[in-house]
Amino acid sequence: MTYLSNDPAEFAGDALDGFCLLHADTVRRVPGGAVRRHRRPKVAVLPGGGSGHYPAFYGVIGPGLADGAVSGNLFTSPSAQDACSVALAADSGAGVVFSYGNYAGDVLNFGLATERLRAKGIRVENVVVTDDIASAPPDRAGERRGIAGDFTVFKVLGAAAEEGMDLDDVVRVGRKANAATRTIGTAFAGCTFPGADAPLFTVPDGQMGLGLGIHGEPGLRDVPRPSARELAEDFVRRLLDEKPAGAGERVAVLLNGLGSVKHEELLVLWTDVHRLLRESGHVLVHPEVGEIVTSLDMAGVSLTVTWLDDELERLWAAPAWTPAFRRGAIPETAGTVEEVAAEERAPRFAQATEESRQLAAALLDGLRAVRKALHEAESELGAIDAVAGDGDHGRGMARGIDAAEAAAAEAWHAGAGAGDCLIAAGDEWAARAGGTSGVLWGAGLRAAGEVIGGSGAVDANAVVSAFTERVRDLGGAEPGDKTLVDALEPFRRGLRESGDWAAAATAAEEAARATADLVPRKGRARPLAERSLGTPDPGAVSLALIARTVSGHLRERT
Amino acid sequence: MTYLSNDPAEFAGDALDGFCLLHADTVRRVPGGAVRRHRRPKVAVLPGGGSGHYPAFYGVIGPGLADGAVSGNLFTSPSAQDACSVALAADSGAGVVFSYGNYAGDVLNFGLATERLRAKGIRVENVVVTDDIASAPPDRAGERRGIAGDFTVFKVLGAAAEEGMDLDDVVRVGRKANAATRTIGTAFAGCTFPGADAPLFTVPDGQMGLGLGIHGEPGLRDVPRPSARELAEDFVRRLLDEKPAGAGERVAVLLNGLGSVKHEELLVLWTDVHRLLRESGHVLVHPEVGEIVTSLDMAGVSLTVTWLDDELERLWAAPAWTPAFRRGAIPETAGTVEEVAAEERAPRFAQATEESRQLAAALLDGLRAVRKALHEAESELGAIDAVAGDGDHGRGMARGIDAAEAAAAEAWHAGAGAGDCLIAAGDEWAARAGGTSGVLWGAGLRAAGEVIGGSGAVDANAVVSAFTERVRDLGGAEPGDKTLVDALEPFRRGLRESGDWAAAATAAEEAARATADLVPRKGRARPLAERSLGTPDPGAVSLALIARTVSGHLRERT
């Protein structure tokens, strides 16, 4: 249960505000996250991801560790705009490393930010963490999720940058750390979002969800809850089974509490973890027991082992001084460079014709109708998503349309025409909704807006095609992959063939329902794929809902 | 819920073992707690209390803070023997300060330890923390409980000792810190003991228990759960209402999570606490937000303000380097002195007569009968205690009799006579049961054993009188105070007048039931006193149960 909040929708931002107030001497708030107040000319290490995992990610900003953190909404990827804002504030000219767990939304948004920053001449690289052995088998290790092993990778990256390594070397050691890191986790009970009455997911009484992800993603299976000793044995055995080829006996170890498993329980568990790792011939180097990567109040625990070579050991053992993690002597913070203003966001609109203004007003009406429909469907969409995902789809769509409608209205009041209104709506949707679908909807709306441009009429087929092409291009999904594309393509085809929005919406609805028979093709762990069978894809359902809403809205207007 | 344990009864000790394994480079396990591995010739600051509050108490062992910690069972005072053991291991010749929250069991046990240590020529003082403004009104501030303000006091004591202050000065600044410290807390949900299925206490849905104690002791009242902002306003107003006379505007602040209220919630709350304290003209000096004094997985939060003068500010801001709390540069740990072996516990028994050996065997049988009865009654005694206390009475009695029976059996096998067996039983009861009743039963049994001595016969009146006198003398309770004395005195009188155990046991039972009409006289907050009306005193019920069991056991034997 989450007990304390003001506006639950603002929880993540409020927490970040509180953090930056508390650590105002060392940390500075910027749009999309926070950065160190004092910078040195060095590679900027920027961990990031959704909120709800404190001290990940902004809790480890400080000498020897992160130069800043990109912080999204709860369990939701930050937007590309967030990542750009933080990177611009943190870059000292030596380049930027984004590092984050392997989740589709994060990969997409940090990837987009990387493109945009490179276009500005900033050197940017990405180190993606894939430590969760429960999320895919060893032969598909690259598809694994990133969980508490994030911290080991961040620590190594931070120490490397602090040593003065250049961008290529920092990235090299970060990837080496990820390749040497394995984590196994378990959950006893799900977390509850601020303002919610029910947990995001549950674990049956007396059971534990072995391998369950830190957002409730499916793991290996539910098993009876073991004693601390049995759990230690299971964890250690699973990790040692995946010892990297050629690894030595020196290891960094992280016993991490997810939220409601308390310090003393972790210490009890540690007695056996310590013994078992020692008995298996390992030397424990600076082991850490505590809350490093949490999931709100989720009751769970994870064990991370990183096999160290000399270089990794030096970086793991190096000093660090951050709000949530302190080791060794405090590194000096001398040599600060002047602050760089965060990316400005001052929209300017081309002069619009009267026809374009009238079309813009009509589009705004349409956005309002869609907003109403998405809010009414929010919990249903969340429930569909919760079957195989993290249950945030409805919330993300609602946040996206809220932001989009507000941005379009602001643009309209500033004199923008139809195309610019839709572009503003798309950009804000992507920035505020977070997650994969937020990015896709935002980019799709922008593409649609670009097609409309300054004209006063809509070529529906051209607009829908531009939206579809952009979504497919960016998301990389094919029909049959169980994504919104499965409803989007039939909608585009229906509209082209019949010229009738209602008929096209019906085609989209039928196609969305039919996604229940599909299994996601890639990028997801097998248990998740199996679990989703029989449930339609929430993105496809959303798309059909929006198609139906727009169809109804157009009929009312004519 | 507590999910991870091996033997729940050994949870506290297992956690301490894990801690000492994890921090083996700086911390050393000793009977009853832990001490710094490296000592300097300085005053030893030793916080202590029951377990379940990590990082209190052993989490703050290290340079600039504690020299060791005395650690009892869960929510149960350590024994006097624990405190002596830790003090002997930590003392470097400059004296020892025990510091702990104001709970009857802690006051009693640390008081007994102080007597014993002084008898050995060691200088010992006590600094009792009384920061919880919800537990008694300002005119009875000395009766208040100690909660998260413990930490501020420990920090000041630790910095003072590290500076090289002598014992008197360390105690002086510690008491000054306590006098300048105010805490208000609240709970949203109770904690659950290892192995237990139900929480120790509950808070009604949508409500919060304002002022509820860290072991579930009654607070001010249940109120509807407010927003974070409203809670901040209420907390700050209550604390500022109790601003000490003459206090300035510079304050140390501690926003403490009790267990399941997570980091991000605390940070959200902090935004308003920070603002309100600033608006009221205060300057915040090194504020801390996090888990400092927890209560297992209790969902709750507390706010502590300490008004600082120059001396307190210097000590509060001084560096410290411990597993759970690190500030500033690391103090040097040079100048260690050689380790002192912990107090030895090698029992030696006088040669016993055959009659005394036979009596010892009979006593052992009696202890076994009492043990069986107490285990059967454990949950019932716990339920009675939970009405107005922390619900651990049944558990404490069970632990006590287990330890007593085992110690008596061990003594018997080592050739001890009746008196020595009972003395061994009493000492172990006091050491293992913890809490006030554990100390009283232990001391009472020891007194009874001393009366029996090497003889082979029991003068029942003399034994019961010795037991009664010792309990009354040590506990300080009068008849009518709603303690075990209310059943003990009628039992003693009944036995003396009738010479019949069964009749005396009946008198004890009637008297125990009659304690339901009493209200505790002193040393407890008013809401607690009111809450206990209508429920008998658990200690009196236990006494009557034991009297009845012994009576039945004697009848069977004759």
Summary tags:
6-stranded mixed beta sheet, homodimer, 558 residues, 48% helix, alpha/beta
How confident overall, as mean pLDDT of chain A?
Answer: 90
Number of strands of chain A: 14
- In spatial order, strands of the major sheet of chain A run 1-2-4-3-5-6
Biggest pleated sheet of chain A: 6 strands, mixed
What is the quaternary state of this protein? Answer: homodimer
How many helical elements of chain A?
Answer: 17
The whole-angstrom Rg of chain A is 24 Å
Outline of chain A: globular
Structural class of chain A: alpha/beta
Report the span from N to C terminus of chain A.
48 Å
Considering residues with a beta carbon less than 8 A from a beta carbon on another chain, report the largest interface and each chain's count. Answer: A-B, 55 and 55 residues
Low-confidence runs of chain A: 331-347
Percent range for β-strand residues of chain A: 5-15%
Structure commentary:
The structure is a homodimer of 558-residue chains. Chain A is an alpha/beta fold. Helix content of chain A is 48%, strand content 15%. Chain A has helices spanning 11-22, 80-90, 104-119, 149-163, 167-179, 228-241, 263-279, 310-317, 354-388, 393-413, 418-433, 435-452, 460-475, 485-498, 501-514, 526-532, 538-557, and strands at 27-30, 33-36, 44-51, 68-74, 96-101, 124-129, 181-189, 207-210, 221-224, 250-257, 283-290, 299-307, 320-321, 326-327. In chain A, the strands form three sheets. In chain A, strands 1-2-4-3-5-6 form a six-stranded mixed β-sheet, with helices on both faces. A six-stranded mixed β-sheet of chain A has the order 9-8-7-12-10-11, sandwiched between helices. In chain A, strands 13-14 form a two-stranded antiparallel sheet. In chain A, strand 10 (250-257), helix 7 and strand 11 form a beta-alpha-beta unit. In chain A, helix 4 packs antiparallel against helix 5 and helix 14 (485-498) runs parallel beside helix 17 (538-557).
